[in-house]
Amino acid sequence: MFDYPLRRQNVHARLKNTEFQLRQERRKPNLPGPYIYVGDFDALDPPGATWQSPPWQNNWTYDGTNYVAFRHGLDGDVEFIGALDPTAATSGTVAFTLPIPWRPSTPFSFLTDMDLGATFDLARIAVAINGQVKVYFPFAP
């Protein structure tokens, strides 16, 4: 029934087995998690909003067609999609706050383009360790 001896493994055999298991773990792909939409869960705006969805703050909202969402993979990177509507918002204010599981361990920011009506302009999205996502527009580096 068994094709291996029923005796304790020595240190060398256990180390070899552990190294094999580590190689197998490294081969697994890092799959991203599901998107969490920003919005009002009570009104289901956007339709994909769940109990995990953070509400909008300081008059920020999505542009009406491209819902704003975020997710992270097994490697911990946070990814954002969607389009913000800056018409009623003020530059440098908090758009929304990430829930605790999605908050970064170090602050980061990235540049993106933002539709300001007649033109597209540069905007900076800053994510703090407390989860606050601030938007600065127009941004002049």
Say how many strands there are: 9
Question: What separation lies between the terminal Cα atoms?
Answer: 70 Å
Low-confidence stretches: none
Find the CATH topology.
Answer: Immunoglobulin-like
Number of helices: 1
> By helix and strand content, what is the structural category?
alpha+beta
Task: Work out the strand percent.
Answer: 25-35%
Please state how the strands of the largest beta sheet are arranged side by side. Answer: 6-9-8-7
The helix fraction, in percent, is 10-25%
Oligomeric assembly: single chain
The averaged pLDDT comes out at: 85
What key phrases describe this protein's structure?
141 residues; alpha+beta; three-stranded antiparallel beta sheet; 9 strands; elongated
